[in-house]
Amino acid sequence: MTITNIAIAGSGIIGSSWAIVYARSGLDVAVYDRNPENRSGLMAKISKALDQSSALFAAGETTADVLARITVQDSLEAALAGADFVHECIEEKLESKKTIFAEFDRLTGPGTILATTTSSFPVSQFASDLACRERCIVVHPATPPHLLPVTEICPAPFTGPDVFDATFRFMERCGQTPIHIRKEIPSFVLNRMQAALLVEMFRCLNEGLVSPADVDKIISQGFGLRWAFLGPFEGVDLNSAGGIRQYLENFGFLFNNMANELGFEDVVTPQSIALLEDYTRAKIPLDSLGEKVAWRDQSIIALRRLKEERGTVDRT
Amino acid sequence: MTITNIAIAGSGIIGSSWAIVYARSGLDVAVYDRNPENRSGLMAKISKALDQSSALFAAGETTADVLARITVQDSLEAALAGADFVHECIEEKLESKKTIFAEFDRLTGPGTILATTTSSFPVSQFASDLACRERCIVVHPATPPHLLPVTEICPAPFTGPDVFDATFRFMERCGQTPIHIRKEIPSFVLNRMQAALLVEMFRCLNEGLVSPADVDKIISQGFGLRWAFLGPFEGVDLNSAGGIRQYLENFGFLFNNMANELGFEDVVTPQSIALLEDYTRAKIPLDSLGEKVAWRDQSIIALRRLKEERGTVDRT
C-alpha cells in the first residue's frame, strides 16, 4: 500500500496536529470538520503551529511549503475522495465513532486504511459490524503528535495484517515512533502509564505528604531528566554493574512490595526478568554499560543547561 | 546555623555524588568509608566524575579546585571532627543505621546536623532513643544527586524545626531542589512515584500487551519529553483552556477509574481540584496559559534536537 493522500476528520488539537505531521512529511492532507467555524479558522491555526515548529521541518522547507499541502474541505465526502489513509479525530464518544465509521464504510474503497485517534475505545467496540472492519485500526498518539513521537498502534482481531504493517511503516516514515499494542484493552497502554503515575501523585497529595509543587518537582527536577533520554526499564539497567537482571534480583522486591500494596501479584518474576534481560542485553552488552552511564550523565547535564537557557514563563 | 564543613560516611555511588555536590558548592568535605579499598580508590573515582560534570561547576572552577576541598579520612572520628553537617550514606540496612547514628551521637556536638540519605527508613525507626535525635533528618536524593537536583527532606516528629529549616536552605544553597515530606512514611515519596509507574509497566509487560522496548518508548519518546520541563500536574494544567480545574472536571474520571481499578477511592475530588487550582493559578494566570503552551512546545522541540545531537550508544 502506498500512502500519499491523507484525510482527517475533526480539526481539534489532535486533528490539526496530525495534519502537521503528515503535511511536513510531504503528503497531501484534506481536513474536514463538521463545525464551519472550526473550518474557517483552521488554516490560520495550523500556520501558526507550523511557524512554531519549523525546526522539525525537512531541510529547506518553509511554513508555506508545508501549508500548501493542506486543504480544508466543506464535506466529509470531499475530504475522503482519493484518500489512502483516513484519520478520524472527532469527539471522544462511542456513538460518534460508530456513526462516522459507518460513513467511512460507505464513502471509501477497499484500498483505504481507516485509522482512529481514539484514546479510549478499541476498534472492536464500534466497527465490528462494518464491511470495512479489516481496514480499521487505532493510531493514538501522545499529545500533540507533531511534537511527541510515540504513537500506539492497536489492531482489532479482525484488522488485516497488511493494514497493521502498512500503518506501522507509515508512522515510521512520518517520523513518529509507533508501538504495537498487542491486545485490545480500553484506554490502551499510554494513558494507563500516565494515569498510574498521576494516581500515585494524587494519593500522596491527598494524604498530605507533599505539596502539589513538590510532587511535580519529583518529576521535573528528578526522574524527568532521565526519562527524557531513557525509558524507565533501560534506566534501571544502568543501576547495577550486572544490569537489570542483577538490579531486579537485588531490589525487585521494592516493586513487588508496591504491587502487593496495590493488590497485585508480584510483577518482578523470573519471566519478566528474562524478558527484560533479553531486551537490554540486545541493546548493549554488560561490559559497555559504563559507556552508557557516561552518555546518560552527559545527556542530563546538556538538558540541565538547556533548561537554564529556556528559563520559565511562570510568574512564581 | 552556618554550614561550611561536611562529613560523609560511606563512599558508594550516593556518598561520592554528595561529595561532589558539596565540594562544587565551595564547602570542605571529609569522607570516611569503613572499607580501606573504597577509601584508596575514592579520589580517582571522584576526579573522573568531576571531569565528566564540569559543566555544572561554578564559573571559573576546575576539577582540581573542587577536588582540593575533598579529603578522605581513615576514621569516622577524623571525618566528623569539626563537621557542621554529617551525611550518612552507608548500606541500606536498619541495624547499620542504628549503629552509625549511635556513633554520631557520641562523636558530634549539639551544633551538628545529622542527615541520612536512606531511601527506606524514616528517622524514627533508628534514632528515636538517641540524645541527638533533634538533629536527625532524612535527606534523600534522586540518583545521582550531583546530576538530578530533587531531594526529599523528611524530618521526624522530634526533629528540630531549626534543623529542618537549615537543612532545607542548605540544599537550596547547594543547587539542589529540596522537597518537604511532611509525614514519615517508609520509602518516602520519590521512590513511590517511580514504583507506581514501573509496576504499571511490569503489568502491561506481563499481560503481553507490549514489548519491553515499546513500553520504554512511551516514556522516552513520549511523556518524558514533557516531564523534562513540567511536572505532570502543571502539564495537565495546559490541556484545557480553563486550566487544571476544567481539565479535571471533564476528564478527572479517567484518573478515578484507574484509582478505583487499583482499589482506591476517587483521587480527583473537590478538595484535590481546589489544591491544584491554587497551585497552578499562583504559577500563571489562565489568560497566559497560551504563552506557557508555546514555551513548552519550543522546549520540547529544543530537547528533540538535543536528543538528535546526543545520538545513542546502544548497538541496536
From TrEMBL, chains A, B:
One example GO MF annotation: NAD+ binding
Task: Tell me if Oxidoreductase is a UniProt keyword of this record.
Answer: yes
Q: Which family does it belong to?
A: Belongs to the 3-hydroxyacyl-CoA dehydrogenase family.
In which organism is this protein found? Aurantimonas endophytica
Residues annotated as domain 3-hydroxyacyl-CoA dehydrogenase C-terminal = 188-250
What this protein is called in its record is: 3-hydroxyacyl-CoA dehydrogenase
Keywords, comma-separated and alphabetical: Oxidoreductase
Q: Which PANTHER family match?
A: 3-HYDROXYACYL-COA DEHYDROGENASE FAMILY PROTEIN, LAMBDA-CRYSTALLIN HOMOLOG
Q: Name one Pfam family in it.
A: 3HCDH
Supply the InterPro entries for this chain: 3-OHacyl-CoA_DH_NAD-bd, 3HC_DH_C, 6-PGluconate_DH-like_C_sf, 6PGD_dom2, NAD(P)-bd_dom_sf
